[in-house]
UniProtKB/TrEMBL annotation:
SUPFAM superfamilies: DHS-like NAD/FAD-binding domain (SSF52467), Thiamin diphosphate-binding fold (THDP-binding) (SSF52518). The keyword Membrane does not apply. GO terms for biological process: isoleucine biosynthetic process; L-valine biosynthetic process. One of its GO terms (molecular function) is thiamine pyrophosphate binding. Belongs to the TPP enzyme family. This is 5-guanidino-2-oxopentanoate decarboxylase. Residues 194-327 form the Thiamine pyrophosphate enzyme central domain. Residues 6-123 form the Thiamine pyrophosphate enzyme N-terminal TPP-binding domain.
Length: 548
């Protein structure tokens, strides 16, 4: 008689078959049967110190690889602790699979006071997920996982939540075929739409490309199309690195800046790929919505996005890479009517104007240059902190997936440390730096212990400006005495050292460069505390809004 394979074990088998190699989670009484499948299997388990850390690690892993980050969490508080990372991942279209336990089937929704019980856990999770599903029978497992991975590969990605009732986790699933279902191909564009887009591009003299996070896997196609039509390329935060930073058609910076907007406004055709035109990328300084006058072609895998924020002249619902490949094929030999100097001249002028923008800061530019010089090819993971805001328009990534942060979209605090750990676990060869403020660091500092446990040589730069400086400035701007923002910072280096990390407190850029280089040879995280007054000789001022 063959041994019984439980539904929990079969789930783990199937995840491995789908290519999952890492799971982030904290085991609890309700998930012990789920963990049986991890005991001797090929999937690595990483133990964060809080479920929020698990979610952010999964996010960083996913952004670094393009593969879904996976969490195993207990019901109730395990899920609620992970809702913030799920919300951040939803805002930025990051693939994430969150697997939780839930009460036994006959106890669902009864409100009888069972351990970890929520009135409707699935409904709660659904507000931060592409979909949330309660697995009522082991037989459902293959098609529910197929649906999840279809979202990750052929739709606008985001978190998916699957909950297993306690009696389903332990149910016999020996009969369930663990073979993954065929994945759907990412959708291409309708031929008529491609033909019309090709006609519009061929007749344009001053086209401009805007690329968002949906184009992160389309770097080669974006570059080829830009070169064919001599089109300047504007990027959002999640598209940093899609166009090589040294390319003469790469505008860089951010469409929130007036100098970058002038490039867009000078175009007679705008092609926007994989961008939602949201406030956090296009109006971070609150100077007003982007006012497009030229015809607009929008390409997005999510049809709903095509009717949000900016009205397109031509809407193409398709995967970015597929649509751009079709467009390249349809415009072979085109581009002769385009002004060959338009793009490069506008980019050069824009970059000169950006350097003189009132919202740029030379000392932050020097800080970013020091990091990139000490750690070539670095992956920078930012939090909601002052230097990260300046990085939006003053930092350029060396490649796609080499810069991301939480300051836009969800805008959560505490993201950078666990997300950087997740990114390093995904790609151990690339240097990883977390950039986080002293206020944000106190949200997730404990995750450094997980980094020590996993021997991760991540650098954590803590930017210490004595509390919630940005919010304090906002209160001053609104004309009242600040409240709740002047929080004393602990000794970050002492705490980090107590967990087994290396530490440094450089007071100038030269010492910072030395600390960064030393950190790369460490087998544990290195926490580098930077006091703002040592690196910014004059107040940075209010970076956003009127009077900035």
């Amino acid at each position: 008689m063959s041994a019984t394979i439980t539904c929990g074990e079969r789930l783990v088998d199937m995840l491995a078959a789908y290519g999952v190699d890492t799971v982030f989670g904290i085991p609890g009484n309700h998930t012990v049967p789920l963990y049986r499948g991890l005991s001797d299997g090929p999937i690595r388990h990483v133990s964060p110190r809080h479920e929020q850390g698990a979610g952010f690690m999964a996010d960083g892993y996913a952004r670094a690889t393009g593969k879904p980050g996976v969490c195993f969490l207990i019901s109730g508080p395990g899920l609620t602790n992970a809702l913030t990372p799920m919300m951040q991942a939803l805002a930025d279209s990051v693939p994430m699979l969150v697997v939780t336990a839930v009460a036994a089937r006959d106890q669902l929704g009864m409100g009888e006071g069972h351990l970890h019980e929520l009135p409707d856990q699935r409904a709660l999770a659904s507000q931060c997920a592409r979909f949330s599903h309660t697995l009522m029978r082991p037989d459902e497992l293959p098609r529910v996982l197929a649906r999840a991975f279809a979202v990750f590969s052929a739709e606008r990605p985001g978190p998916v939540h699957i909950e297993l009732p306690l009696d389903v986790i332990t149910a016999d699933a020996s009969h369930v075929d663990p073979t993954p279902w065929p994945m759907p191909a990412a959708p291409g564009a309708h031929p008529e739409a491609v033909a019309e887009a090709a006609r519009m591009l061929a007749s344009a003299q001053r086209p401009c490309l805007i690329v968002g996070g949906g184009a992160v896997a389309s770097a080669l196609e974006v570059q080829e199309l830009a070169e064919r039509f001599a089109a300047p390329v504007v990027n959002t935060v999640n598209a940093k690195g899609v166009m090589p930073e040294t390319h003469p058609l790469a505008v860089g910076s951010s469409p929130s800046l007036g100098a970058v907007r002038e490039v867009i406004y000078g175009a007679d055709l705008v092609l926007a790929v994989g961008t939602e035109f949201g406030e956090t990328d296009y109006d971070m300084l609150f100077i007003g919505d982007l006012a497009l006058q030229a015809p607009l072609i929008r390409i997005d895998i999510d049809a709903r996005q095509l009717s949000r924020n900016q009205r397109p002249t031509l809407a193409i619902c398709a995967d970015a890479r597929a649509a751009l490949s079709q467009l390249l094929a349809a415009t072979e030999g085109a581009g002769r009517d385009t002004d060959p100097q338009w793009g490069q001249v506008r980019v050069a002028a824009a970059q000169q104007a950006i350097s003189q923008e009132e919202h740029t800061h030379p000392e932050f530019q020097a800080l970013f240059a020091a990091v990139k010089s000490a750690l070539p090819g670095v992956r920078l993971v930012g939090d909601s902190t002052l230097p990260t805001y300046y990085a939006v328009w003053q930092y350029e990534a060396s490649a796609p997936r080499h810069y991301f942060h939480s300051a836009t979209g969800g805008g959560t605090l505490g993201y950078a440390i666990p997300a950087a750990l997740g990114a390093k676990l995904a790609d151990t060869e690339t240097p990883v730096v977390a950039l986080i403020g002293d206020g944000s660091a106190q949200f997730t500092l404990t995750e450094l212990a997980a980094g020590v446990e996993s021997s991760l040589s991540v650098v954590v730069i803590v930017w210490n400006n004595n509390g919630y400086s940005e919010i304090e400035q906002g209160m001053h701007a609104h004309g009242f005495k600040p409240v709740g923002v002047d929080i004393p910072a602990p000794d970050f280096c002492a705490i980090a050292a107590g967990m087994g990390c290396k530490t440094a407190k450089p007071e100038n850029l030269g010492a910072l460069a030395e600390a960064l280089e030393t950190a790369q040879s460490a087998a544990v995280p290195t926490v580098i505390e930077l006091r703002q007054e040592h690196f910014v000789s004059q107040p940075a001022g209010q970076w956003y809004g009127q009077g900035a």
